[in-house]
Amino acid sequence: MCGILGVVSQTPANQLLYDGLQVLQHRGQDAAGIATIDGHTFHLHKGNGMVRDVFRTRNMRALQGNAGIAHVRYPTAGSSVDHNEAQPFYVNSPYGVVLGHNGNLTNTAELQRQLFAEDRRHVNTSSDSEVLLNVLAHELQKHATGLRLDLSAIFAAVHGVHQRCRGAYAVVAMIAGYGLLAFRDPNGIRPLVFGINETAQGPEYLVASESVALDTLGFKFVRDVAPGEAVFIDFEGSFHSQQCCDHPKLNSCIFEYVYFARPDSVIDGTPVYEARLHMGEFLADKLKRQWCDVAIDVVIPIPDSSRPSALQLANRLNIPFREGFVKNRYIGRTFIMPGQAMRKKSVRQKLNAIGVEFKGKNVLLVDDSIVRGTTSREIVQMARDAGALKVYFASAAPPVRFPNVYGIDMPSRTELIATGRSDEEICREIGADGLIYQDLDDLKAAVQACNPALSGFDASCFDGSYITGDITEDYLTAIETARGGGKANKSTGDDDQMELDLAMNVSSM
Predict the structure, then answer these.
(1) Using 50, 70 and 90 to split pLDDT, how confident is the model at 484?
(2) Which residues pair with 172 in a beta bridge?
(3) Distances (CA, A) of 139 to 68, 115, 159, 219, 466
(4) Residues with Cβ < 8 Å from 56, sequence gap 6 or more?
(5) Is 198 buried (19+), middle (13-18) or exposed (0-12) by CB count in 10 A?
(6) What are the residue numbers of the active site?
(7) CB hemisphere CA count around 365 (13 angstroms)
(8) CA–CA gap between residue 315 and residue 478 (Å, rounded)
(9) Whole-number Å distance between alpha carbons of 458 and 494
(10) Is the separation of the CB atoms in 327 and 304 below 8 Å?
(11) What is the model's pTM?
């Protein structure tokens, strides 16, 4: 999962891009990068770490020009923490192009072979984003008229990318001497929006992963980039768009609404906060049907992204809603700490229970989802240690039983607590007195309640249905092998990365 930005401005773009990355920091905290263009010269700075750690004043001063792209990175399975794999990536042939990418290509190995054997292009890292950049560069060369590019060639090149690349991708790129290009995969899995700011000097355009970046930077939201569509803004500020796919279909990633997107964003016409409220309503209705004889004294969210669902659930059931956990926002990321004992210690450092809200009560804990269950187990124990009589657990999402291959670093099947286990077995694993999951149909209905036009979703981590149609058992096995036989490799730092990040809800940053 990553965050991307692209801007064509009337003033220096460096501060806009930096501020935008801060807003999108929840989409990736492992690396950050900004590329700007001044005339025909690219200026690039990137590195590992949070945005605030990667950029210093001297770096910002060097990022000259009124246009640029930016990226924050959350590595997926098999990727490296090498700073050279931070984005944007650059290629100088046949045109200078820099590119940032959110998503994951599912045919990377095939494309790498094609690039080397047929396109005569060299890829220097293991990143699928560099592969995508070289595919785009080759398609630009293929469709150019002589040495010059025109709009038809640029859009034809994107059409070529769609024909060759499979998986999920939202892309921002700059072509030296031409302009800013942005496009979205034919299934629209990863989000992408754009907005405009009218100034006395002329219009400015911003493309971003989430609408919240437009809001905070003073741009007026225009619309989502459609699946398969490409938008192009030249460096003079002229806007162009074209559908570059023969059969586009919107299948928005439903996990964006569950967890990853900020609650103040709107994705594909759906306000994320409102969708999470509806999740709480549907979950409350299920509780009424199945737990009518269960006495619950208080509803407590696991901070932060489960709050809207927990609040609406409590309102619908007429049960008091209380904040029972305080989150320490100054603790570093816990997944890099070795050993189970240290992981447990770090969870307790990040969350601390408010004893008065637990003591002598039957408590319902509400979280956005459960991935490995390690952190859920620890939080249940924290509630018991604080004096809870009974601890029930509710998930605003269905059981996560399958890996996500479209850009979210969900682990292999052997690491997912729900794979091969019933709800009762999962309940015992996390030590709760009762466990209830959202139904997938209800989750979809919660999002569709905000925008009935949404008819398709990528819900593969819940139902195992991979909408690109190219995910085989061999592919999933290869992913698991890359993780070291079901254990995370260096690319993820520790086998609790996703579980801890979800439980601590970095999306609230």
Answers:
(1) low
(2) 100, 182
(3) 22, 11, 9, 32, 27
(4) none
(5) exposed
(6) 2
(7) 34
(8) 45
(9) 27
(10) yes
(11) 0.90
